[in-house]
Design brief:
single chain, Molybdenum Cofactor Biosythetic Enzyme, Chain A, Molybdopterin biosynthesis moea protein, domain 2, Molybdopterin biosynthesis moeA protein, domain 3, six-stranded mixed beta sheet, 9 helices, elongated, MoeA-like, metal-binding, MoaB/Mog_dom, metal ion binding
């Protein structure tokens, strides 16, 4: 049976539960616009193709070679002229052609034995698979092949340039290089490629209650799940987490010094927790002492608070700071909604700037008040084959298990109700 996820505004813990009026909350689009403003674009570097997986291409790559470089056979068989075969005939086998060897022109009224990937000799215009061919020795001892007909020109032949044509754009600037893209580069004989430098990130998860996994828990302590989770998410989004201390003392001075030191070494600082107004929330005043900060109270759940700041460095640069909520689900959702597009801007990566959107059928019911909800859902075809979104039963922002199997975020607009069977827009979670 479809379940109805929690719909109250104050269903989570920490900053996310601060009561607010609709007028005091900013829409998601406003925060995204501010996040993308004045982003530093990473410089380019030339690296080996073998090390370029996941990197963002900095310039168009034009094909230098046709692929395949010549007409070749797509199977083991025999090549001939369609005109010579007619309705079927015996032809002497004049040559044997293996892949990687240059063939001789095909003589009239003859055929050639060739193998998958072998170049088609001049004069041949058809390949017949070997399973259809009968062999015998001719009257003079020359091997002959019976080639059944009639045949069409080009059968079983991969034409030159069928995959890639020299001079055409092979790959576009701004794309993230995956295995297939690396294969295309390798197929052109390219050993190096020009990409955007990875964004260097410092990640801080604050709070004296946090301890690292593997240590014994004392009363009042919790394991630091955000540090390892966000580190992996940032890596998945193409960043390089170069600073992620196990512990920053929960004081203003220690927080300020850690942020100041990191700002001189990285391109982006991400903090988790400590951006509210409590006596133990030191991140906000520490950032303000080093630069500036805006605290956004967003009309979304989970993840109402978002801190956007800048830290001035000795070199004159202003390093962007993104402060996510401390609740694990809020941090996880915030990474998808804010860190992923920010990294897309900083590396000029088109795919990272926006999560793919799809409309599917809801297999749940839900309602919202003044905030737009982002329900963690998995996607599966219904009985009729139509894709459905199945919401995890407990959508509380402290329940990280709702993220472990999530494949999408179902968007439930403010002041709305969704019933099972309604169409719902989802953000597809893809790296």
């Amino acid at each position: 049976m479809p379940t109805e996820p929690p719909s109250t505004e104050n269903d989570s813990c920490g900053c996310d539960s601060i009561p607010a009026s609709a007028a005091s909350l900013a829409p998601l689009a406003s925060a995204l616009e501010a996040l993308r403003a004045h982003c530093i674009l990473m410089e380019v570097e030339n690296i080996p193709v073998s090390e370029a997986s996941g990197r963002v291409l900095a310039e168009d790559v034009l094909a230098q070679l046709d692929v395949p470089p010549a007409d070749n056979s797509q199977m083991d068989g025999y090549c001939a002229r369609v005109a010579d075969i007619g309705d079927g005939c015996w032809l002497p086998i004049s040559q044997r052609i293996a892949a990687g060897y240059a063939p001789q022109p095909l003589g009239h009224k003859s055929c050639g034995r060739l193998f998958t990937g072998a170049e088609i000799p001049d004069g041949a215009d058809v390949v017949i698979m070997q399973e259809e061919v009968t062999l015998r020795d001719g009257s003079d001892g020359t091997p002959e092949a019976w080639l059944p007909g009639p045949r069409a020109q080009g059968d079983n032949i991969r034409a030159r340039g069928r995959d890639v044509v020299s001079g055409n754009r092979l790959l576009a600037a701004g794309m993230r290089l995956d295995a297939a893209a690396l294969g295309l580069l390798g197929g052109q004989g390219l050993s190096n490629v020009t990409v955007r430098r990875k964004v260097r990130v410092a990640l801080f998860a604050t709070g004296d209650e946090l301890i690292e996994p593997g240590q014994p828990l004392a009363r009042g302590q919790i394991y630091n799940s955000n540090r390892v989770m966000l580190s992996q998410m940032l890596n998945d989004f193409g960043a390089d987490v170069v600073i992620a201390p196990l512990k920053v003392a929960d004081t203003f001075e220690a927080t300020r010094d850690a942020l100041a030191s990191a700002a001189d070494q990285v391109d982006l600082i991400v903090t988790c927790g400590g951006v509210s107004v409590g006596e133990e929330d030191h991140v906000r005043p520490a950032i303000e002492s080093l630069g500036s900060i805006d605290l956004w109270r967003l009309a979304i759940k989970p993840g109402k608070p978002l801190a956007l700041g800048r830290i001035d460095t000795l070199t004159g640069n202003a390093i962007r700071v993104v402060g996510l909520p401390g609740n694990p689900v809020s941090s996880w959702v915030g990474a998808w909604l804010f860190l992923r597009p920010l990294l897309g801007e900083m590396t000029d990566c088109h795919a990272l700037r926006e999560l793919p959107r799809l409309n599917v059928r809801a297999a749940f019911s839900a309602k919202t008040a003044i905030r737009q909800d982002h329900l963690r859902v998995r996607l599966a075809p219904g009985r009729d084959g139509q894709l459905e979104a199945h919401a995890f039963p407990d959508q509380n922002s402290a329940v990280l298990s709702s993220c472990a199997g999530a494949e999408a975020l179902a968007i439930i607009p403010p002041e709305s109700r969704v019933a099972a069977g309604d169409s719902v827009e989802c953000l597809w979670l893809t790296h």
